[in-house]
Amino acid sequence: MTTPHVPLRVFGVDPGLTRCGVGVVDVARDRSATLVHVGVIRSDPDAPIESRLATIAAGIREVVALYRPHVVAVERVFAQQNRSTVMGTAQASGIALLVAAENGLSAALHTPTEVKAAITGYGAADKRQVQTMVARILRLDELPTPADAADALALAICHAWRRGATGPGRSAAATPAQRAWADAERASRR
């Protein structure tokens, strides 16, 4: 008797200092995706920066510990007119990448345009279009909200689709988590 294919579990992070969207999806070889977790990590805008970053780190660590993703996909920080916003986004992005490394997970960065194009077929799609397509792809009865959470799910789906849901292969460059995932995948085919 053969065990079914082990889906690729991707943790998407839409970095933000006040609201950091997080989403975990399982993506099968046929590109079908299933919602595992979605949420938003919030930090108090009046708290000192180090406390806010610690809050984001604790929330991301909790998601990794609870849902044990195979890979982390983070939105690539892009230039914005508001310097304080881009700085907070970059800091939260760095926290997500740090937590990935702490857990032996590979991490990938995707631009908002890449994500929108992968999810909607249109790189300039608006937030509502992304939410609608994420709900359709994940077969959800309602749109995922807030937009930060929907964006995190879109990042996770985009990563799996762009990198292929067949997952990481066994190589010298593979992380321990990738090797464990690949081993589980091979065992499921027996």
Label the structural class. Answer: alpha/beta
The amount of helix comes to 40-55%
Which residues sit in consecutive blocks of at least 5 with pLDDT less than 50? 166-179
Mean pLDDT: 86
The number of E-state strands comes to 5
Which CATH first-tier class would you pick?
Alpha Beta
User: What proportion of the residues form beta strands (DSSP E)?
Assistant: 15-25%
**Strand order, biggest sheet?**
3-2-1-4-5
CATH architecture title: 2-Layer Sandwich
Shape: globular
From the alpha carbons, calculate the radius of gyration and give it in angstroms: 16 Å
Note the main sheet: 5 strands, mixed
Distance between the termini: 8 Å
Number of helices: 6
Would you identify the CATH H-level superfamily? Ribonuclease H-like superfamily/Ribonuclease H
Question: How are helices and strands ordered from N to C?
Answer: EEEHEHEHHHH
Written overview of the protein:
With 190 residues, this protein is α/β, with parallel strands linked by helices. It has a single domain (8-178), classed as Nucleotidyltransferase, domain 5, CATH 3.30.420. Helices cover 47% and strands 19% of the residues. It has six helices and five strands. The chain has helices at residues 49-67, 83-102, 112-120, 127-137, 147-163, 176-188; strands at 8-14, 19-27, 33-42, 71-75, 106-110. A five-stranded mixed sheet has the order 3-2-1-4-5, with helices on both faces. The chain is globular, with a radius of gyration of 16 Å. The relative contact order is 0.21.
Short recap of the structure:
The chain has one domain (about 10-180): Nucleotidyltransferase, domain 5 (2-Layer Sandwich), CATH 3.30.420. The protein is about 45% helix and about 20% strand. It is an alpha/beta fold and about 190 residues long.
